[in-house]
Write a structure and sequence with these properties.
The complex is a heterodimer of chains A (about 425) and B (about 250).
Chain A: H1 16-19, H2 21-40, H3 51-76, H4 84-113, H5 121-133, H6 151-175, H7 180-199, E1 211-212, H8 225-251, H9 253-271, H10 276-302, E2 304-305, H11 312-325, H12 330-348, E3 355-356, E4 361-362, H13 364-382, H14 390-395
Antiparallel strand pairs in A: 1-2, 3-4
Chain B: E1 2-14, E2 17-29, E3 31-36, H1 43-50, E4 58-63, E5 68-69, H2 75-81, E6 83-86, H3 98-105, H4 112-116, H5 122-134, H6 150-164, E7 168-172, H7 180-193, E8 198-202, H8 206-212, E9 215-220, E10 223-228, H9 230-235, H10 237-244
Helix pairs in contact in B: 3-6, 5-6
Classes of the chains: A mainly alpha (about 425), B alpha/beta (about 250).
The structure holds adenosine-5'-triphosphate and magnesium ion.
Subcellular location (chain A): Cell membrane
Keywords (chain A): Cell membrane, Membrane, Transmembrane, Transmembrane helix
GO molecular function, one term (chain A): branched-chain amino acid transmembrane transporter activity
């Protein structure tokens, strides 16, 4: 048998890493950073970094993780979700319920055991209920706390609750082809509804008190916060590394091709036979679950979660981080989240010195948001590639050098297929 | 030759304006059909209806041996059933390379998980290379499609159509922006495709249509004005009045 096409090449099969060198660089940077922090921490190193700062860094890694999830759903798939911090918060609540229950159980059991008559099981549960829900004038366990005594089930909830919510919400929204700004508004509405619900005392999640004492891990009391902070820092770094590799894999190859196609022209993708709605639902749900995992790692380091954390503005910040870091590249989102959130805590924590203009004193605690807003506008207008765009200077990624004309020419005079009525020529 | 697609009594109006008016149409497999008609005759709208982009107000659109109705199917289901389309204004994914564009169109399972776990195969790559050869973009496979000229984008979209391996090809003004020799190549390509498939070509260029050497349907104000060989319809008085006379 003779082949006419003698130059038929085999499939270009290069390894995943070879095709995505940025994954290696990111993992390397993360590893170096993790090692550095470990060597400088109080528990495992020189003590140059305070425990609370290690916690801040660990939390920052969680924010990087939710930011790359946001980048996948927005930067790659074109769905500007303004609700991903709600999923992040749900993850925090889900793990917080177990943390609070189990710790209260230990305390209650210890104190009741000291009593002359050993307590019954029911008495212990009632007493835990009083401890947890006393602040909202209740002692009954609401239905949603049914699994709170089981770490395993509650970890399952970290994934299942936001996953199901995203699935149902996404199915309803994408199926009716809600896109663009309408979808963003819808996700904001979902977020607002959720936070308003949680603010109520009878929501079963302690209203605006939220869940607290989450930094105390039941069973690990011996360990001490300094060591715990490093444990959580490592866990966060591991989650970020794994999340990064997973998302890099998802957005490379054919899946990446299809979802970027959806971002740029979803109708065209449909006419190629791809069920666009199902792809969007997949991306939306997957990123929601990752956001929730990030939240479940974040809040034990923060120590407290309350409904304000789920407020719509949080999700808007998330979008701002990703935009400043650079959409459509995972490391850009991570850099944006780390950079802006650390800078934000520096400014609002009183780290930045006030500027005295003589007639007016600029206090950064008040002015930081305005600075952030202006930077956001500036990035959007003048540097749409964000901070991540700086890396293009290194790798010489450049805009297409176009040859030939754009068209359209005679015979293809429509701006959009079948749109805008045009008088007969 | 058996009937592959059948439209009957299809009408659609936009804000009271009847773009398609009681249109009936049939095409067999294999068959080549050219559709001509003045601007605004409804040629593109006709393709919009078949591909599910526009829902008709009335009428039936039946597909395949079993005569399933396309009206209850989504755009992606229709495409998966074997209807491929090349748009009037070339629409390719400009931010992606020519190879990625072709790979996306390549006939494969279309579900999210099929795509996620899709592994590049040697056959797939060979097919892409063969198509690239056919459309003259072999040396451009690694370039972003946005860099291509208008004519090259036309070619790329034709390539994507071939990669889909559809039973019915709807080709809206393929020759726009092409040089005479490229037009010739396009007719050859379409004629070859029509040996095993149904091909519907909308084109304004009469030379192009003549070279296709097939049955011609003349559309005017949303319905069929005449049908037959090109020489036959060009002698039809109505056709001369509305179309050729202008
Ligand atoms: N979505 C729409 N809304 C309103 N009017 C439309 C729409 N789509 C098409 N039309 C109108 O329907 C008529 C038929 O349009 P169509 O695009 O099908 O014509 P055509 O035969 O493809 O013309 P051309 O040769 O210019 O491509 C035109 O008058 C057009 O303005
Ligand atoms: Mg048209």
């Amino acid at each position: 048998m003779t082949f006419t096409a003698t130059n038929a090449r085999p499939a270009p099969r290069r390894s995943f890493i070879a095709q995505n060198p940025s994954v290696l660089w990111f993992l390397l940077a993360l590893a170096v950073f993790t090692l550095g922090v470990t060597l400088l921490s109080e528990a495992t190193g020189t003590g140059f970094l305070s425990t609370s700062f290690v916690k801040t860094l660990g939390k920052t890694l969680c924010l990087c993780l939710v930011a790359i999830a946001m980048d996948v759903v927005w930067g790659y798939c074109g769905i500007l979700s303004l609700g991903h911090m709600a999923f992040f918060g749900i993850g925090g609540y889900a793990i917080g319920m177990w943390l609070m229950y189990a710790r209260t159980e230990i305390i209650v059991t210890r104190s009741l055991m000291a009593a002359p008559i050993p307590p019954t099981e029911q008495e212990i549960v009632d007493s835990i209920g009083t401890q947890i829900f006393g602040v909202v004038g209740s002692s009954e366990f609401p239905l949603i706390w049914s699994f709170a005594d089981s770490l395993f089930l509650q970890l399952l909830m970290v994934i299942a609750v936001p996953g199901l919510l995203a699935l149902v919400f996404g199915w309803l929204a994408f199926r009716s082809r809600v896109t663009g700004v309408y979808l963003s508004i819808l996700t904001q509405a979902m977020t607002l509804a959720l936070s308003l619900y949680l603010f109520q005392n009878d929501s079963g999640l302690r209203g605006n008190n939220g869940l607290s004492g989450l930094q105390n891990i039941p069973g690990l009391e011996e360990m001490g916060q300094a060591t715990l902070s490093i444990v959580f820092f490592w866990a966060s770094a591991l989650a970020l590394g794994m999340g990064y590799v997973m998302f890099a894999w998802v957005v490379s190859g054919k899946m990446g091709s299809v979802i970027r196609g959806i971002r740029d022209n979803e109708a065209r993708v449909r006419f190629l036979g791809y069920p666009v709605e199902r792809f969007k639902l997949f991306v939306f749900t997957l990123t929601a679950v990752v956001a929730a995992i990030a939240g479940a790692l974040y809040y034990p380091q923060a120590g407290i979660i309350n409904p304000a954390e789920i407020a719509p503005i949080a999700s808007i910040y998330l979008a701002v981080w990703v935009a400043i870091g650079g959409r459509g590249r995972l490391y850009g989102a991570a850099i944006g989240a780390a950079f802006v959130s650390l800078l934000s805590s520096w400014f609002t924590g009183g780290g930045a010195p006030d500027i005295n203009l003589g007639f007016y004193r600029i206090q950064w605690t008040d002015w930081w948001l305005i600075l952030l807003g202006l930077s956001f506008v500036a990035v959007t207008l003048f540097a749409p590639k964000g901070i991540g765009g700086l890396f293009d200077l290194l790798s010489h990624r450049h805009a297409p050098d176009r040859v030939g004309d754009y068209g359209p020419d005679k015979g293809a005079l429509r701006a959009e297929e079948g749109s805008e009525p045009e008088e007969a020529k | 030759m058996s009937t592959l697609l059948e439209l009957s009594g299809v009408s659609v109006s936009f804000d009271g304006f009847k773009a398609i008016n009681n249109l009936s149409f049939q095409i067999g497999e294999p068959e080549m059909r050219a559709i001509i008609g003045p601007n605004g005759a409804g040629k593109t709208t006709f393709m919009d209806i078949i591909t599910g982009k526009t829902r008709p107000d009335e009428g039936r659109v039946l597909w395949g041996e079993k005569g399933v109705s396309l009206l209850s199917m989504s755009e992606s289901q229709i495409a998966q059933a074997g209807i491929g389309r090349k748009f009037q204004k070339p629409t390719v994914f400009e931010a992606q390379t020519v190879r990625e564009n072709l790979a996306m169109a390549l006939k494969n399972k279309r579900g999210p998980f099929d795509v996620l776990f899709y592994r590049k195969s040697a056959e797939g790559a060979a097919r892409i290379d063969a198509i690239a050869e056919e459309i003259g973009l072999t040396s451009d496979l690694a370039r972003p499609a946005g860099e291509l000229s208008h004519g090259q984008k036309q070619w790329l979209e034709i390539g994507m159509l071939l990669a889909q391996d559809p039973r019915l090809l709807l080709v809206d003004e393929p020759a726009a922006g092409m040089t005479p020799s490229e037009r010739e190549h396009t007719t050859d390509l379409l004629k070859r495709a029509a040996q095993t498939r149904a091909v519907v070509v909308v084109e304004h260029d009469m030379e192009f249509v003549r070279r296709l050497d097939c049955k011609v349907t003349v559309l005017h104000e949303g319905s069929v004005l005449a049908e037959g060989r090109l020489d036959h319809v060009t002698q039809n008085k109505d056709v001369i009045d509305v179309y050729l006379g202008r």
